[in-house]
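Ticket #4471: complex job returned nothing on first submit. Input attached below:
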Amino acid sequence: MLDHQTSILKKPQLTLDIGKVRRNISRIVDKLQRHGVFFRPHFKTHQCAAIGELFKDMGITAITVSSLDMAAYFAKHGWDDITLAVPVNPGQLQDIDLLARRIRLNVLVDSLEVATMLNNALNVKCPLWIKVDVGYGRVGIKWHDEQNVLELAKLVESSPQLEFCGLLTHSGHTYECRGKEQVIHRFDEGRRRMLKLKQMLLANGIRARISMGDTPSASLVEAFEGVDEMRPGNFVFYDLTQTQTGSCSETDIAVAIACPVIGKYEDDLKVVVYGGSVHFSKDSVNINGERLFGQLALPTTDGWKIIPLSDGKVVSCCQEVSKIKVSREVFEQIELAQTLYILPAHSCLAAEVYPRYLTTNGEVLERFRLFE
Amino acid sequence: MLDHQTSILKKPQLTLDIGKVRRNISRIVDKLQRHGVFFRPHFKTHQCAAIGELFKDMGITAITVSSLDMAAYFAKHGWDDITLAVPVNPGQLQDIDLLARRIRLNVLVDSLEVATMLNNALNVKCPLWIKVDVGYGRVGIKWHDEQNVLELAKLVESSPQLEFCGLLTHSGHTYECRGKEQVIHRFDEGRRRMLKLKQMLLANGIRARISMGDTPSASLVEAFEGVDEMRPGNFVFYDLTQTQTGSCSETDIAVAIACPVIGKYEDDLKVVVYGGSVHFSKDSVNINGERLFGQLALPTTDGWKIIPLSDGKVVSCCQEVSKIKVSREVFEQIELAQTLYILPAHSCLAAEVYPRYLTTNGEVLERFRLFE
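Support reply: We reran it on our side without changes. The output follows.
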């Protein structure tokens, strides 16, 4: 039982439903296994050694992270095959070398210049992927720039300290999709672009594996032909953004922020909680034309229960407090000082705020912290 | 000289120009003094004892904070007159009582119910303000609900443990204003609404002071008649949001996030830095129809220099990296691994991420941390 169900909750608390986490993990584990795709989950969403153990229990041996410090944290907790899924930061070459001596640290590059710097800095052979941009437009060599991909692959193949693994992409633009059909279409477009590059390399005598990312694709796609590896991360918790891509329902969301009620305003059917952008992050999601910072859920004896979005939505989020518009029925159930739960717009950033989780069965799970 | 100007910066670093901070503070100190308005700065933006000392040096004796923990932090650093500018959280009555025994802790209420709970919980007389909503629509009794204000004021006056100070509001909706004229108009509307309530109370034999908030008003307004106290906070650093209200120019912005360059993409005139939503927060500002997460500034020997927004704007911000669209001229000046500076969309939330500041002259200043 949650501490704040027996006593009054003083401050916002990141709360985790570990049963939902397990279910979310096993669903993707089973699916990717069925399709024969290697599963290298991204740990940037939970950033927690104890949650990592749940993955280990389901047979996962390799992971993805988004910073070198996060890689070092999980290496300390026994993971020895980690992909750092952000292009190599030339300012951290020595630190990469140090960690690559201890574990299999897979890195990403998208330029000849950085690949050369990396090769020169390393004292150990390091597995490397070429980062490809299949349309998201963030980092990576553009999928149609075959010449550049080939040149970089050749350089890597001829670099004594680099081991060429293949082509890696993150179709982050699936987050803009609404519904299964759009996600499948976008994933497939990216997959075909990756396969074309793979074949081009093969024609030049270079073998490459294909690694793809993203929670919407892992959740909704059923055709992974030619894809060797998937690296979704957010699925472990899901969030309101993912309900909009169609990847999950509200009942799959495994984290919520418990917040005490500090004000009720009957005229506006509005409830104000202690809990704001410093407790959830300022990320939001557009649902039916409205910018929302979260969805209300009501406490139960063992967690929270979902109510329709129209019964409780977080319509504004200041530094320390948030405003929830509720239906009259819900308004009348809510009391000052009671605990409410907020399902976050973006679970990665909401969880990022906190040093630890409180689970719905009372356990405390420590997280990696970016700044000590 | 900054550490990362002599060596390569490994990771994003919150950087503070203390000269700009001093100038921003003294400008508002001088102005409010000239107008005879008591200045009770909000410390939620900087949350730093050392920056607090700069205010003390300019004669400031009383402050505003946004959480009880923040109040306790500044009490520990010698502040003994603090307003907690969020309505009382009924879950923290005992903690309020404990702190109110040590310092003059001013609190806010907007309901009879919480005022009664507070009076019953206190072992010491506590100064109290009625929170009024003059149009922002977040918390507070609505300005036109005179009956409610009067009833609450009477209750407070008759409560042995409560000392009625007056009416307090935060015109947070000035943030939506574009330019001086709009800010002045909105502030004045709020001021007149507050004065009307004050007169209503006086007609009922109750004297009330008037406390108002917000950086746009403090920066742009020159007519404070009837206002006893101002509580702006963001002005200490300013940010891109405030350039849009007209409250400051880019050269006034006193914090920037130093980030290493990890990618250059000539086709798109795009630069990617290590530094994302976990380093800046995910807040953004709409400038000329574009959603921006920051503005690029270039390093100098003693800080950063402003360049036109059209030469460098942060157009997307993922968890760990951000994408900056630059002009060709700027693109050609930028090198891989060099340090760039990002002026944040919202300085309160960007600074919130970090446990400490590095000043442009090499000092390290510790901040209050929400979670230990």
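The two ends of chain B are 31 Å apart (CA to CA). Closing as resolved unless it happens again.
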